[in-house]
Amino acid sequence: MSETSDQLYNFALLDEDAKREIRRKLLKAVAIPGHLVPFASRDLPIARGWGTGGLQITLSIITPDDTLKVIDQGDDESVNAVNLRRLITRTTGVATTTDTAAATIIQTRHRIPEEPMRADQILVLQVPMADPLRWVEPNLERATIMHSEADYGKMWVYMYESVVRAGDLRIASQYPVIVNRRYLMDTTPIPRWDVPKLHMADTLYLFGAGREKRIYAVPPYTVVEPLQFEDYPFRTEYRPGQRCARCGADNTFLTEHFVSDSNGGRWETTCSDAAYCAKRVAQMEATA
Amino acid sequence: MTIVATPPTPIERFNGLAFRVLLDCLARPGKVGHLPPPPFADLPPLPDGTPPNATAVAAGMSLLDQTVSFVHAAGEEWLPVDHPLTRWIALRTNARPVEAAAADFALLHDPAGTALFGELAAGSLLYPERSCTVFLSVPAIALNGETLRLRGPGIATTATVGLRGVAPTELAAIASRPSQFPLGIDLFLIDQQGRCLGLPRTTQIEVI
């Protein structure tokens, strides 16, 4: 590559106008917690639906001094995370890490890291479906009016019907929450295990939906309440006695996978947050 | 790994760093942020001959481009479209100078501008984000002062901040600014040293 082709792109890929637009929308999203703010959602060298909303937020907020971590389903090494991390680092030159505690910006798909995040960190979530009212009101204009009037009766009926049909609140992910006692918000496909981490957190959460062209935010120390009934309360996936097969943690979100062995194989559960699991294993080996 | 991008220019670097301070301050009302030094110093003076707060102007300009509009005021007067400072900002950002009610951004060059809050757009229930973002220059934000008590999202319990050189009527105007959630204006207070305080519409403000 010649000297000129090495500098083909603007810092952080997006042009300055695109960044400025997203920055303006981010400020409004923070000022109106849980409200969906429309934004232009530029074309990127990654297809919409593959994390372009989160990516555009990260590219708009990143500075040369940041340390970046990108995870996909809790894993730093999966294809989506590796590709996004490579795009961001090649267009910014920022340092990267897999250690949650060392990162200043963490872009994530479908998980909030297990390690508690601090006030000086920002979590950027990739959002596939921005509007929780989509389930009960497919018409976007009508859903916008419902949000403006805090008219969430249909959503409560949906929750009630979930109880009637399944005997419990059977919502595996994208669990709907009320933010700051006003706006109904989609939590993205994080597991229910992660939903309580949004409530009165130390960290700023930014949400980007590239395909749906929406940005929203949950500021730190904001009340985030999952929809629930008195007799059917919100519950996480936690099973008493559950353990990670690798690090032994009994207080993490686990994923199940099949391990082949000479007896035909077995199911094993391990931490979904791979970096946290590896850190615990390393600590145990160091003390052993 | 080959880096395939140009490093940011001084203005782009300021815009990026300033945005992180603005975002942090707006997400954590009561926290005093420190804006980087402004990337220019040759601003035309205000009508009374004093220079405007360059950091506050630069922070406001970091969010302006051809798709948005702005208005600015010295004292209790909106500055006209043909004022040298209006033209200076418009030339460098391509933002449109407009009347107050239509402005996406307002630069208030001194605390007397708080009297003009009522003229700014507070958004609509359908589009609460179509509201004005205000950059208000104040003489000094004190690190451990007790002028305002703040409550709301972004604050664990309560926060207090100190403001120097802001009259009681102006403090009252800040406390009673248009903020009927989800409608309202969002404020950044920026002092001569580049210290920054964010007051989003969600913050309940009480003058101590």
Automatic annotation (TrEMBL), chain A:
Gene Ontology molecular function: 4 iron, 4 sulfur cluster binding; lyase activity
InterPro entries reported for this sequence: PhnJ
Matching Pfam families: PhnJ
Alphabetical keyword list: Lyase
Protein name, entry field: Carbon-phosphorus lyase complex subunit PhnJ
GO BP, one annotated term: organic phosphonate catabolic process
Organism: Chloroflexus islandicus
Superkingdom in the source lineage: Bacteria
TrEMBL record, chain B:
Signal peptide, first to last residue: none
InterPro entries from the UniProt entry: PhnH-like_sp, Phosphonate_metab_PhnH
Alphabetical keyword list: Lyase
GO terms for MF: lyase activity
An annotated GO BP: organic phosphonate metabolic process
NCBIfam families reported for this sequence: PhnH_redo
Descriptive protein name: Phosphonate C-P lyase system protein PhnH
Species of origin: Chloroflexus islandicus
Lineage: Bacteria, Bacillati, Chloroflexota, Chloroflexia, Chloroflexales
